[in-house]
Amino acid sequence: MKVVIMIPTYNEKENITKLLRELSAQSFEILIVDDLSPDGTADVVKAFQKKHSNIHLLSHRKEGLGKAMIRGYKYALQKFNPDVIVTNEADFGFSFRHLPKMLAKIKDGYDVVVTSRHVGNGRSEGWTVSRRLNHFLANTFFAGWVAGVDAVKDRNGAMRAVRVKGVLDKLDFNRFPTRGFAFFFFQIYKLSKITDKFYEIPSVFRFRSRGESKVSFNPKYFRTYLADILEYIRLAFAIRLGYY
Fold this sequence. Notes:
This protein has helices at 13-23, 41-49, 65-80, 99-107, 129-146, 182-192, 222-240, and strands spanning 3-9, 29-34, 55-59, 84-87, 112-116, 123-125, 160-163, 198-202, 204-206. It has 244 residues and is an alpha/beta fold. The chain has one domain (3-240): Alpha-Beta Complex (Spore Coat Polysaccharide Biosynthesis Protein SpsA, Chain A), CATH 3.90.550.10. It has a 7-stranded mixed β-sheet, with helices on both faces. A two-stranded parallel sheet has the order 6-9. The longest helix has 19 residues, at 222-240. It is globular and about 50 Å long. The two termini are 32 Å apart. The model has no long low-confidence stretch (mean pLDDT 93).
């Protein structure tokens, strides 16, 4: 089974070294999709590339997390012809220790496997009250109740494994209307129109210990964050009204 691990990055220099050390020994293809991070994230990746032929870098100007995900998926599908694409973020929120079980579930016949904060003993740690409220509004209220996306309970988690043949290759990423983090719940919605073989693995999500969160009221990212929120709400209602 040919596996590609895809990770979008923006200003993740503090995390990317540890992440690539952890992943580089794997036999999988590792694709870092970097939005021209000014902190030098790409330089760290390039240094690893000199020693590891399975590490790949796709750089592009910053257009938003959703656009980076779309760009990465299209590139991975074309370049690697994989059986499965696994995505995650670089902040160690969801641990890659779940990867073997995720791939095992794909082999068992599931098409989409996600790590989940909302099944079994899954949970979030290190979150403020405002962060928990934001997550509830996005994941449960807008994506769940308004949009009616119910294939999984954790609709916004970035760590997910998706079978390519007959599933991921059926998505038309050129028609995805998302620039920001709404990509994640919209992808689940579109995948649920193709398959009902979803599986959630209970997982503990830990708030980053290094680097800056971009999903926050950090003044550096506030304008983008606000635009992402508005896009998320608009998309939830658009799905509810049958536009997608």
